[in-house]
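Course assignment 3, question 2. Fill in each field.
Student: A.L.
Task: Predict the tertiary structure for the chain below.
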Amino acid sequence: MPLVHLHTFLFVSLLAAVWAIGSRRVRAALPTLAWALVPAAWSVFQVTDGFRAASLVGWKPGWTMGAQNPVVFLLLNFGLFLPLALAALVVGARERRREELLVLGPALALFAALFLVRSRPGSGTTRR
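Answer field:
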């Protein structure tokens, strides 16, 4: 997957790690990690020109919104999805539903992080 879409690979890898830790099945996830680690490292090496390419990730708060009002931007682009997802997360936390928390928690955390971190070289910047 790193050759096709590096950011998807990073997301799937982080999600798998959170699920393994959250479900207390780290030992069961280790064989998958072992099988994926070497080819993934080689693919990332190729994609980044031997780790010499420009940074693929960088701190850039608000890079997706530009000068728009954040509340208006979120409502126009996501509608009621975010309030409903947050409500489901709160209900899952109150009722201690591990499965819901393991799905909603990482998804919403990554969603929020992507408003602060650009995920491709040069995104959100102007070229000279």
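Instructor remarks: Residues 2 and 9 are 6 Å apart (CA to CA). The radius of gyration is 18 Å.
Grade: pending
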